[in-house]
Amino acid sequence: MSQIKRILWTVTAGAMIAALCTPAYAGHDNEGTDPDNRNQAVKGFNLTAKGQGAMEWGKTQLERSVITTSWGGGDIEVHDYTTSGVTWAGQTRCKEWNALWTSCDVITIQFNTYWKFSDWEWLVIGCHEMGHTGDLGHRSASNDTDDNSCMRGSTGSAYYKFDAHDLNAIAAGT
Amino acid sequence: MESDFHMRDFYLPKWGIWAASAATVVAVTTGAVVWNGTETNGLDTEPEVISHALESVEFESFAQMAVTSTAVVRATVTEVNPGRIVGGDETAEPGEESAATQARDVTLKVTQTFSIDDSVEIPELIIVEEWGWDADGDGFQVNNYTWSEVGEEYFFFLGDSDSSDPIRQNVISTEGRIHINENGSLSPSAEEGSAVADSIDNLDDSIMSEYMTQLNDISPEDLPTPADMPEEASPGDADTPIQIPSDDPSPDLGTGDGSEPTPYPSAT
Hints:
The structure holds 2 protein chains of 2 kinds.
Chain A: H1 3-21, E1 39-45, H2 49-63, E2 68-71, E3 76-81, E4 88-97, E5 104-112, H3 119-133, H4 164-173
Chain B: H1 2-9, H2 14-36, E1 39-40, E2 43-44, E3 49-55, H3 62-68, E4 71-86, E5 101-114, E6 125-134, E7 140-142, E8 153-159, E9 168-171, E10 177-180, E11 186-188, H4 195-200, H5 205-214
Parallel strand pairs in B: 3-7, 6-9
Antiparallel strand pairs in B: 1-2, 4-5, 4-8, 5-6, 8-9, 8-10, 10-11
Signal peptide (chain A): 1-26
Keywords (chain A): Signal
Organism (chain A): Streptomyces himalayensis subsp. himalayensis
């Protein structure tokens, strides 16, 4: 190996090691909220009765998938707040990434109690947000042609359960 | 001799270790500078994650969104500032971290206003909210609604405002913003594959403006039917337990007709 090549390899190796140590930032999340494992503990914080019911229903739905759930902190944290000025019913995001920033350690679910939702819609919301914790994205009319998925984009178009496609997708994506 | 040759081939001299160390230090320092450059006063200057949201309304087209809106404005972002905090006084338990979120107040210079209601007046400077930051100052965007950038031009579809201040306006939903690119092409905040995004395909800013201008000239029966917007909850609405349906109206949860794609590996 020539001296020049040796220098290039050495510097490249150093830079690669350093790159692994460099903090990651925007752009690592556009694949959805990927849980760091298939055992997820769920904890609600001062929830309203509707929020509690939605969380419990969502957890039940998640249990139908390859993900095993339990009650407790550290994985999925559920809150409900009255948020005016927006029209979303619930949202899910990664709160804490794992050490390698490749999947999510702690996931936050936030329900919105500003709007009046029917019980059916609350079940939809619970299923939908828990679906995001299983790395599911939104579905549209064109890929939920039989209208039986809770992962559609709005409370009006979504069903209150996962369909087989959702369950398979959780298995494939987690 | 052969083994000696290999030993020499992979031999890393002391100067090599120093070079690798130096490269490491340079790269780490550069990374740290970049990292610090994405925060201002502890708040990220760009979204770090996408918060996936379920909307309470989904529009059939941009046209339906337009007639449901109180007004549509064409505007340029002049300023962005930290806004209100939601959930800050509702921390779960002593010692638990808050899930509070903070809005971004986006100031807009309105250049054109379109509305089917002639009585609607939108000030030249308005503020709309977008989200946001979490309790740690980490930035997140909601669905495909990226953070609006100063100097960029957009169409904003405005919904009912709960503020008496006319400067404070609400974007009608996370689908309610369209970015006008430099070449006039449009990038909707509606998610790819949604009805709104599909309806904007192949349109440009001039066609969009022309359509909006003509809204007043179209007879009401020819306009799309406005979407049903959600109703504000009354106190106590969220306090009654959910009744789970005892009979499942649609027990077949298969994909059924075979028209749905195979499982996608991740969110889309």
